[in-house]
């Protein structure tokens, strides 16, 4: 597309997330790590909601720290991501793996015992 044609397209400011603060973009696990050129989670969320339905599979083959995968999961999609960078894979795994909650202090003690003894 020629530069002249591009200048005729109006800017859709609804895609600007410049009003978002670090607090706004750090919910759930999004704030765990910084990552180069990380998505604004609200951008990923909007794209997922506008282009898929609940239960669909959302794939990000360049997932970086996994922003898209996290948003896919919390929006009831199956999130799948890959990345050539092993550090990115580790960060995304940490951000997308649910933490198991123990029901009681006794269960915690039993588990610690099993691991250490
Ligand atoms: C801009 S970052 C993505 C950031 C991500 N959207 C986030 O929110 O964290 C682009 C990613 O593409 C990955 N990448 C580049 N070339 C790749 C390839 N050939 N296959 C898989 N991943 C690749 C890089 O390792 C990098 O993590």
Question: What is the compact description of this entry?
Answer:
The protein is mainly alpha-helical. It has one domain (about 20-115): Vaccinia Virus protein VP39 (Rossmann fold).
Keywords:
5 helices, binds S-adenosylmethionine, 7% strand, mainly alpha, 39% helix, two-stranded parallel ribbon, elongated, 2 strands, Rossmann fold, 117 residues
Produce the secondary structure layout:
Layout: H1 3-6, H2 41-51, E1 57-60, H3 67-74, E2 78-81, H4 86-96, H5 105-116
Parallel strand pairs: 1-2
Helix pairs in contact: 2-3
This protein binds S-adenosylmethionine (SAM).
Structural account:
There is one protein chain. This protein has 117 residues and is mainly alpha-helical. It has one domain (21-116): Vaccinia Virus protein VP39 (Rossmann fold). 39% of the residues lie in helices and 7% in strands. Strands 1-2 form a two-stranded parallel ribbon. The termini are far apart. The mean pLDDT is 92. S-adenosylmethionine binds next to loops.
